[in-house]
Design a protein that fits this description.
The complex is a heterodimer. Chain A has 12 helices and 6 strands. Chain A is of the alpha+beta class. Chain A has a domain of about 170 residues: 2-Layer Sandwich (Beta-Lactamase). In chain A, strands 3-2-6-5-4 form a 5-stranded antiparallel β-sheet, sandwiched between helices. Chain B folds into 2 domains: about 170 residues, Transcription factor LuxR-like, autoinducer-binding domain (Beta-Lactamase), CATH 3.30.450.80; about 60 residues, Arc Repressor Mutant, subunit A (Orthogonal Bundle), CATH 1.10.10. Chain B has a 5-stranded antiparallel β-sheet. Classes of the chains: A alpha+beta, B alpha+beta. Chains A and B meet through strand 1, helix 1 and helix 7 of A and strand 1, helix 1, helix 2 and helix 8 of B.
């Protein structure tokens, strides 16, 4: 073989080309395209479960507020458990470092978490039981800094006992996520909260549940809280984002189309 | 799957994959209709595999008839070369040259991509009476992609190098084969579903009227059968015109019979 460098099988290249070709033929709706592409990519990576989220970086070293705008393969129950896992302080610690390192380096490429956080570190993370409760074992996460915005995050997840993602999986994810900027950059949720202190993890979780259309009653049930407590958290969220109704909050996150900055 | 995959376990180097994916990313991000996107994608493909011209056409490949092409879209030719090229493809001697491909296409009825050496191993073209015209149009190595269309006929995409350039390498042919076989719309006149998607946006009553018009019914006959007044039918037809942005019934019907219902 004359090419000693990394390569992909023709079958995988065909798979990628087929999905991208289909996306190119779709109506130019960034959201629909992203969901289609992510579902196709997830299938190639042997999983149906993925999230796409974005966060504005507020304060260095602190955990950003990720809004998981698009997800695949989650029902409500599992999404709640996912949100609990992802808001575990140790996850914040593992990913915030990575995000900050990327931003400071002025990097625009994707990185997977295993390039920064070793498998051993992850295996003894106190957040691991929370991931398992969400039925999640192997994780493939890529982060990409978005200039003058923050960071976008794409994660693929496999069930607890499933085999780890391979080099081939991670290569496919990186190639597509790096070379198709649309995936990370179009249609960023809009929000600004530069002047306000950081939201508690519970609130970050609840924003995502609201964003997914869950009622306050359902949220209370999923989190084992009273409806009044949920009301209290939501008030905090309104204050944080300087909005006065749930509709205004949702609009704030869903109307950004990424072209206005 | 496609006829064009030679061996299942070949690989492509990561830099090549990145180039292909980046090109497709640009096509996804580009605005414009199918022809704009096709142009962008074909130009980009030619750049990756160092080809200098490409031609898209609806064609007829019948073993017993001269090969013919209409509706040519192309890039990379100057006027002089293009004129010689048109003469070359329509030269009577081309019938014998393209006969093996036409027979294979007829037998298999699936998409084929072939290099010049695969298509014409005995170098019939070089010995044919059409050879001087091909030389005049400065065409050397080529890759041809033939796709039978549902509407009948064959869509052909040809990628060319000039006479003095080397044959396409296996790597270059493979890249072309992958793109040409995995992106079916490169061969289409409209994006799949786009015409039908536009139709689905119509009210069912409008769709019914549209289908009947397409079947050649008069407005009066439609009114009678749907039990509505002719004036109501006029109103529906107006709404349909507006939906498809046409100004006459003939324009509307042409839109559907010519397969470009999705160009808005």
């Amino acid at each position: 073989m004359k090419n000693a460098g990394p390569s992909l099988s023709e079958k995988d290249v065909r798979g990628i080309v087929r999905i991208l070709g289909e996306v190119a033929a779709m109506e130019p709706s960034p959201d629909a395209r992203r969901i289609y592409l992510m579902n196709g990519l997830a299938r190639m990576l042997g999983t149906g479960t993925w999230v796409w989220g974005a966060a504005q970086l507020l304060e260095p070293g602190k955990q950003p507020v990720y809004i998981y705008q698009h997800t695949g393969g989650f029902d409500e129950e599992r999404m709640s458990r996912f949100l609990i896992a992802v808001e575990h302080p140790d996850c914040g610690e593992m990913t915030a470092q990575l995000a900050q390192a990327l931003i400071s380096a002025g990097s625009r490429v994707t990185r997977s978490i295993e390039q920064i956080v070793t498998a051993e570190r992850y295996a003894r993370s106190p957040a691991k039981p929370a991931w398992e409760a969400a039925g999640i074992g192997p994780i493939l996460i890529t982060l990409r800094p978005i200039p003058s915005y923050g960071i976008s995050c794409i994660g693929f997840y496999r069930p607890v006992d499933a085999p780890m993602f391979t080099d081939r999986d991670s290569r496919i994810a990186h190639i597509v996520l790096n070379e198709v900027p649309l995936l990370h950059e179009a249609s960023m949720p809009h929000h600004s909260s530069r002047t306000v202190p950081q939201l508690p993890p519970r609130c970050r979780l609840i924003i995502n549940q609201l964003f997914r259309g869950m009622s306050r009653k359902d949220i209370a049930k999923h989190l084992g809280l009273s409806v009044n407590t949920v009301h209290g958290y939501i008030k905090l969220i309104f204050k944080h984002f300087d909005v006065h109704s749930q509709a205004e909050l949702i609009a704030r996150f869903s109307q950004g189309d990424g072209r206005d900055h | 799957m496609m006829e064009s995959s030679p061996t299942p376990d070949t690989t492509l180097a990561e830099p090549d994959v990145r180039r292909i994916v980046r090109l497709l990313g640009e096509v996804i991000a580009a605005t414009g209709d199918i022809n704009d996107k096709r142009r962008l994608l074909m130009d980009g493909l030619c750049e990756i595999i160092h080809a200098t011209a490409w031609v898209w056409s609806m064609s007829q490949f019948h073993p017993d008839k001269p090969p013919s092409s209409i509706g040519l879209i192309h890039n990379g030719f100057d006027e002089h070369r293009l004129a010689s090229y048109m003469e070359a493809i329509n030269h009577p001697a081309m019938e014998a040259v393209s006969r093996p491909s036409s027979l294979e296409l007829q037998r298999k009825g699936v998409h084929l991509t072939r290099t010049r050496r695969q298509m014409d191993p005995e170098r019939l073209l070089d010995q044919s009476a059409a050879a001087p015209l091909w030389i005049k149009s400065n065409i050397g190595p080529l890759i041809m992609s033939l796709r039978p269309m549902e509407s009948g006929g064959v869509n052909a995409i040809r990628i060319y190098r000039t006479l003095d350039e080397p044959h396409f390498t296996d790597r270059e042919a493979k890249i072309a084969h992958i793109l040409l076989s995995e992106i079916p719309w490169l061969h289409f006149t409209a994006f799949p579903d786009q015409a039908s998607r536009n139709i689905t946006n119509l009210y069912p009553r409008h769709r019914t009227v549209l289908n009947l018009l397409g079947d050649g019914w008069s407005r009066k006959k439609i009114a009678e059968h749907l039990n509505i007044s002719v004036n109501t039918v006029h109103g529906y037809v107006k709404a349909i015109f507006k939906h498809f942005d046409v100004h006459s019934q003939s324009e509307l019907l042409a839109r559907f019979t010519q397969g470009d219902g999705g160009d808005k």
